[in-house]
Amino acid sequence: MASPRLILLGLDGATFTVIDFLVARGRLPHLAALLQEGVRARLESTVPPHSAAAWPSLVTGKNPGRHGLYDFYRRQPESYRLELINGGSVAGPKLWDFVGAAGKRVCVFNVPISYPPEPVNGVMVSGMDTPGRASEFTFPPSFKQELLAHFPGYSIEIDELEGAVWRKERSGGDPRARRRQTILAHLEQQLAVANFLLAREPWDLFFGVIVAPDRAQHLFWSDFEEMQRGKELSAEASPLVAAYERADAAIGKWRAQYPDRSWVILSDHGFGALEKEFYLDQFLADRGLLCLRSPWERTWRLGTLAARKAGQIPGLLKALVEQGRARWRRGDAVLPPWVLGDPERAVDWSRTRAYPIGDTGAIFINREGREPQGIVKPGRAYEAVRDEIITALRELRDPEDGRPVVDGVYRREELYAGPALDQLPDLHVHLRDYSYRVAVDLKGKKGRFFGRPRERKPALYDSGTHRSEGILVAAGPGLARSRQLPSAHLLDIVPTVLYALGLPIADGLDGAVLLEAFTPDYVSAHPVERGGRTAVPARAASGYSREEERQISDRLRHLGYLD
Questions:
Q1: Between 20 and 30 A from 60 (CA), which of 53, 109, 348, 558?
Q2: Which domains does the chain show, CATH number per domain?
């Protein structure tokens, strides 16, 4: 019997909400066939359902309490400053390590949070955390030149392509139209590279990720809402439609070319409408938990330092600061500390008990002994602050409809377990069905906690955001037909893929083999083997240079994760 081979295809952010809608209209024939022939399940993501937490959890089979990642950045030890994460931040063996250690070849393409590329038994092309084409983004390193020879315009992410589009237009143009064009071009490129790798490599496991569904749905979820209301949109008109239809066509082509392969198609999280933004910074500040210095006070501190060196205080600076102080006293403006890159100056830590980081609903307590200027004592005082925040958020109502905004506020130990627990937020806020999102950039007023995305970004505003349920579709030898699983989690993917490849399940994984996805006869003939082990291969340094940090920060800002 031939050794099993498997295609694991990630469609970043794909959701059955869109897939079922398009399948019902005959627009995704190949996905429809897979759904008929195989297994489907709603795939529960991490909390939060964020790519920087979800992909590391998926590839390691371990929860965030064991890898410590929840966003694209994390706190530096003994500091309030943030550092960007990448694949080197993900400790322990990953799916491709387990497969390669068993003597099987892997081909890994564009998996998020996979830079720098790791030594694998096969080929690896790292994903969105790669700074740019100048970086060493392939293993083996020599493969980079071959890849660029076939795809001289290869772009890691849409930000690189968008710069080329901008220069070609030689004018500002419509930013949303430019973004449509960029997403479509990047989608075609990723599908072409995946096709090239599938044909080139003698792989046992192909693991590739297409990011277009996520990129398109953030900005153009409104396209789907228009389709639900009866409007017809083509792939050329809507990158959201293209992301699904072009991927579906590629799946059909690859199934014809590799008919004996098993298939697993998944997403790291789902998607839905973005209704409102929640100014968590302002909420904590209004309750006296977070004490922000005014931006003008901060400017004054920096300006007077420079002025002292010059022997004078510039009159214009003084006037601007006095004007800003007046606005601050009226409550007209607050500047978010996390965008400044200088939270030590932006926050009065001597009066701050809690502070948020990022747009995922993460809240840290300014704990004595952990934070450099922590004021909340461990034990009862720490728990009292957490209880105060939980109570306040649960009582919060949206003034427009009077309904609760928060579905849940979770202590980290309720969500995660593992040695990296102390690196994770002390609390996580789950806003209403994730249709409300924490705003990174706060320019609100005291007492005003909600806004619309379009208010902050009139041109490139998001109309969609993440949901907790992604997709899982699986078909092939030994897999059940036309079956819907009652539940599945990202953590189940590593053990299930190892089982499908006939490999033992590694010790220490948090997920389980989805045995209900396979036929009873297959399970009977293939009992689960446990105790698979692999040494972690040598890793490249995980940090970025200053220039690489700038490149990644610019990319995340371009994608809407930083403002």
A1: 558
A2: 6-274+465-558 (3.40.720.10), 276-292+334-460 (no CATH)
Distance, CA of 439 to chain centre? 16
Q: What totals of helices (H) and strands (E) does the chain contain, helices first?
A: 21, 23
What is the DSSP secondary structure assignment for residue 537, as one 8-state letter? Answer: P
CA-based nearest residue to 242, from 279, 217, 269, 274: 217
Taking the C-alpha atoms of residue 188 and residue 196, their distance in angstroms, rounded to an integer, is 12
Return the closest-CA partner of residue 450 out of 372, 487, 397, 407.
397
Pull the structure tokens for residue 543: 């940090």
- pLDDT above 90 (res 540): no
Q: Which two tokens stand for residue 417?
A: 């377990």
Q: Name the residue type at position 308.
A: R
pLDDT of residue 313: 47
Q: Find the helix or strand (DSSP H, E) in which 205 lies.
A: strand 205-210
**489 - beta bridge partners?**
44
What pTM, to 2 d.p., does this model score?
Answer: 0.90
- Only one residue has tokens 């970086």, namely 135
Cα radius of gyration rounded to whole Å, the chain: 24
C-alpha distances (whole Å) from 554 to each of 103, 209, 267, 487, 527 are 39, 22, 25, 38, 49
Instruction: List pLDDT tens digits, range 335-379.
Output: 344 433 456 677 899 999 999 998 899 999 999 999 999 999 999
pLDDT confidence of residue 337: 42
Residue 536: band (very low, low, confident or very high) from pLDDT cuts 50, 70, 90: low
